[in-house]
Design brief:
This protein has 74 residues and is of the alpha+beta class. The protein has one domain: OB fold (Dihydrolipoamide Acetyltransferase, E2P) (Beta Barrel), CATH 2.40.50. Helices cover 24% and strands 36% of the residues. It is built from one helix and five strands. A five-stranded antiparallel sheet has the order 3-2-1-4-5. A hairpin with a 4-residue loop joins strand 2 and strand 3. It is elongated, with a radius of gyration of 14 Å.
Length: 74
């Protein structure tokens, strides 16, 4: 079973990734898929291969948007 995380930010040649466990990892930017951006959900398999999870990224963004809408609802 692999691990999942969210790209928190980029710092130079590094990506700071918050893993589902809560820990932050620094990953070389060039190990990520080329279309990875801040907020992208990534999956790391047992071999260390990193892939994007576009559906999960979209689901998380929608969840945050809904929370913001609820917070600022008139």
């Amino acid at each position: 079973m692999g691990k999942k995380g969210v790209i928190d930010r980029f710092e130079g040649d590094w990506a700071v990734v918050e893993m589902d466990s809560g820990e932050f990892l620094d990953m070389p930017k060039d190990t990520l898929p080329p279309n990875a951006v801040e907020g992208s959900v990534i999956a790391v398999d047992s071999k260390g291969e990193i892939t994007l999870s576009p559906q999960e990224t979209q689901n998380r963004r929608k969840k945050v948007e809904d929370l913001i809408d609820k917070l600022f609802k008139d």
